[in-house]
């Protein structure tokens, strides 16, 4: 199994600033931010599943355009997985015939272009080929989850957007084959209060989080705000003890 980074920025601006999206093999997305827009039509056509961490625009922006682009050319609906609360938000505020058509009823409800699949914390989806995606707890300003992506080659955890979360730490520490941890750090410590209010991490909170992790995975930092990215990375480098976190970047590929 391969996981490729399509987008990992906390903002836009320039060719390398794409918001959050990970491509698992050729057919699964973890979030669907603006990075999905760099895929060719034939690549978009192969996507069968989208696992959404939460309903904020930088993580779901390309779902409506993806379904609109390939729906008619597919024989099966694209399945969007997420917590019941996240899917309710998508139905109510995106696929509502006002912002975008309700593709879960197009061309009809018996044969739609889009299907929603509820997924609660602790539940897993088996995707064939020994692949599995499991929802993990996260703490954000809207209902949110992280995801464990696993195969015979080990596990990768993606935090999604989250504040410091004891339940997420506990869930990570229950994963015996953890190889990679992709974790957000949106703001530098100068914006500590903003990080707390918006339920994101800053370097000092990340350090507290990583101190509690029992395993020794590779740690990769995502969701850096473009205007503060280098400052945030410099602060992370001074904090993070036995870990040497690195900045995630578009095109990076993980093998499991």
Automatic annotation (TrEMBL):
<dbReference type="InterPro" id="IPR036866">
    <property type="entry name" value="RibonucZ/Hydroxyglut_hydro"/>
</dbReference>
<protein>
    <submittedName>
        <fullName>3',5'-cyclic-nucleotide phosphodiesterase</fullName>
    </submittedName>
</protein>
<dbReference type="InterPro" id="IPR000396">
    <property type="entry name" value="Pdiesterase2"/>
</dbReference>
<dbReference type="GO" id="GO:0047555">
    <property type="term" value="F:3',5'-cyclic-GMP phosphodiesterase activity"/>
</dbReference>
<dbReference type="GO" id="GO:0006198">
    <property type="term" value="P:cAMP catabolic process"/>
</dbReference>
<feature type="domain" description="Metallo-beta-lactamase">
    <location>
        <begin position="18"/>
        <end position="223"/>
    </location>
</feature>
<dbReference type="GO" id="GO:1902660">
    <property type="term" value="P:negative regulation of glucose mediated signaling pathway"/>
</dbReference>
<dbReference type="GO" id="GO:0004115">
    <property type="term" value="F:3',5'-cyclic-AMP phosphodiesterase activity"/>
</dbReference>
<dbReference type="Pfam" id="PF12706">
    <property type="entry name" value="Lactamase_B_2"/>
</dbReference>
<dbReference type="InterPro" id="IPR001279">
    <property type="entry name" value="Metallo-B-lactamas"/>
</dbReference>
